[in-house]
């Protein structure tokens, strides 16, 4: 009898535990780091170099690099049409972009050096497992390039890698609002500051959180390529300000915000989100959609290619999808260029709720995503997403 009573007393506890475990799946998904398990092709195209152009190097860690930190600068500097832009990694292997796809690097550090190419700008996105080792090849490489007066731009938590080089010792450095205190405790020598989107001292630059990769890139574009090119890029991305927004509200995610996230995880439907990869896709738009919706804590977020094969982006990145339609049931599929869909594509997507992006709406892509998130989950959760993007 006592055993039966104990059993029935445990039933509610077990049910609640199962509910919480299921509800927390989106959080586990948010925090997990994918591993590339496909075939690795080593036939990278030869590195093209135009000596009449400036050279921009965006560093990546094969094991994990923040997607918007990398893809936004890649798009913006390419859009100037005045720069050689390279994504450079240590290995000729796919780079895991957090969260939602894989890309091949344009070249490696060793190959770039063998060609005698000196970068004018080095961009440091947020990366995993790099900053803890001050003698790592990547950090050594950054320090070496800084001696030739290359501009160094740390983006978001790329500030940790920047700080590890020692270049920012005694110099202004900013980072994501929610990582500020932790970063400051880990590296005490930089002059950590908040409430600005971009810092600049001599050839050293840094940005606040994820979304501010745009402001950091625009700052260097304005200085390097001039006002006319700068304004062209501003129009191209429908930047929501007339000038670069330098004022910033560094607001960290607090306990009250975490309760709002928990409420959404437990009581709201957590969608399985897919983003379609298409030939010639806009790198910044793709990264913005993936990164913004990743911060809504979906139960899953996958990039999908209609034929399951890699695609080539607008400016030449080889992008590898994480899944296929056959492998995943989706609650919604985001399509950046619906005008490029074939009849066969439309037939394939029949029955899947499709979110289409109108390229002629002249709206900044992050604002467009946030607007829909507000309609889906309300103003409070839209604000949470903004905080996670450090878009304030």
Give a brief outline of the structure.
This protein is of the alpha/beta class.
Sheet-strand content, in percent, reads: 15-25%
* Strand elements, count: 18
Side-by-side strand order of the widest sheet: 6-3-1-7-8-12-11
Main beta-sheet annotation: 7 strands, mixed
Which consecutive residue ranges, at least 5 long each, have pLDDT under 50?
Answer: 2-29
Number of helices: 14
Secondary-structure-based class equals: alpha/beta
The radius of gyration computed from the alpha-carbon positions, rounded to a whole number of angstroms, is 22 Å
Oligomeric composition of the shown chains: single chain
Query: What is the arithmetic mean of pLDDT?
Result: 88
> Helical content, roughly?
25-40%
CA-based shape: globular
Alpha carbon gap, first and last residue: 60 Å
Note the main attributes of this structure.
392 residues, alpha/beta, seven-stranded mixed β-sheet, five-stranded mixed β-sheet, 17% strand
Structure in words:
It is a single chain. With 392 residues, this protein is of the alpha/beta class. Helices cover 38% and strands 17% of the residues. It contains 14 helices and 18 strands. It has helices at 2-23, 25-31, 67-79, 109-114, 137-146, 159-164, 180-186, 213-225, 227-236, 255-267, 283-294, 343-348, 365-377, 379-389; strands at 54-59, 65-66, 83-89, 95-98, 101-103, 107-108, 121-124, 151-154, 172-173, 191-192, 198-201, 204-207, 272-277, 300-305, 311-312, 318-320, 332-335, 354-356. The strands form 4 sheets. Strands 6-3-1-7-8-12-11 form a 7-stranded mixed β-sheet, with helices on both faces. Strands 2-4-5-16-15 form a 5-stranded mixed β-sheet. α13 (365-377) runs antiparallel to α14 (379-389).
């Amino acid at each position: 009898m006592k055993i039966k009573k104990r059993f029935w007393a445990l039933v509610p506890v077990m049910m609640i535990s199962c509910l919480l475990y299921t509800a927390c799946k989106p959080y586990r998904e948010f925090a997990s780091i994918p591993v590339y398990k496909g075939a690795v092709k080593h036939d990278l195209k030869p590195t093209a170099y135009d000596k009449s152009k400036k050279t921009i190097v965006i560093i990546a860690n094969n094991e994990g690099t923040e997607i918007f930190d990398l893809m936004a600068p890649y798009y913006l500097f390419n859009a100037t049409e005045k720069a050689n832009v390279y994504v450079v990694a240590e290995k000729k292997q796919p780079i895991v972009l957090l969260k939602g796809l894989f890309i091949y690097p344009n070249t490696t550090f060793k190959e770039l050096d063998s060609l005698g190419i000196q970068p004018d700008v080095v961009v440091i996105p947020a990366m995993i497992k790099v900053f803890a080792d001050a003698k790592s090849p990547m950090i050594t490489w950054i320090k070496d390039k800084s001696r030739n007066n290359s501009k160094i731009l740390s983006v978001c938590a790329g500030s940790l890698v920047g700080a590890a080089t020692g270049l920012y010792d005694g110099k202004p450095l900013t980072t994501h609002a929610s990582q500020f205190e932790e970063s400051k405790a880990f590296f005490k020598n930089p002059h950590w500051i908040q409430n600005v989107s971009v810092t600049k001292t001599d050839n050293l630059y840094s940005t606040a959180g994820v979304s501010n990769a745009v402001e950091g890139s625009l700052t260097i574009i304005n200085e390097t390529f001039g006002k006319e090119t700068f304004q062209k890029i501003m129009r191209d991305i429908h930047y929501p300000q007339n000038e670069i927004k330098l004022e910033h509200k560094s607001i960290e995610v607090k306990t009250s915000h975490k309760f709002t996230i928990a409420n959404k995880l437990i009581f709201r439907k957590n969608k399985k989100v897919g983003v379609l990869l298409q030939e010639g896709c806009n790198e910044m738009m793709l990264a913005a959609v993936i990164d913004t919706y990743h911060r809504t804590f979906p139960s899953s977020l996958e990039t999908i290619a209609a034929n399951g094969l890699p695609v080539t982006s607008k400016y030449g990145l080889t992008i590898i999808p994480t899944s296929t339609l056959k492998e995943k049931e989706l609650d919604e599929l985001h399509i950046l260029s619906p005008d490029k869909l074939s009849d066969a594509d439309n037939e394939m997507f029949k029955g899947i709720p499709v979110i289409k992006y109108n390229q002629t709406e002249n709206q900044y892509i992050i604002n467009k995503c946030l607007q829909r998130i507000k309609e889906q989950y309300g103003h409070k959760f839209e604000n949470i997403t903004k905080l996670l993007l450090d878009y304030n």
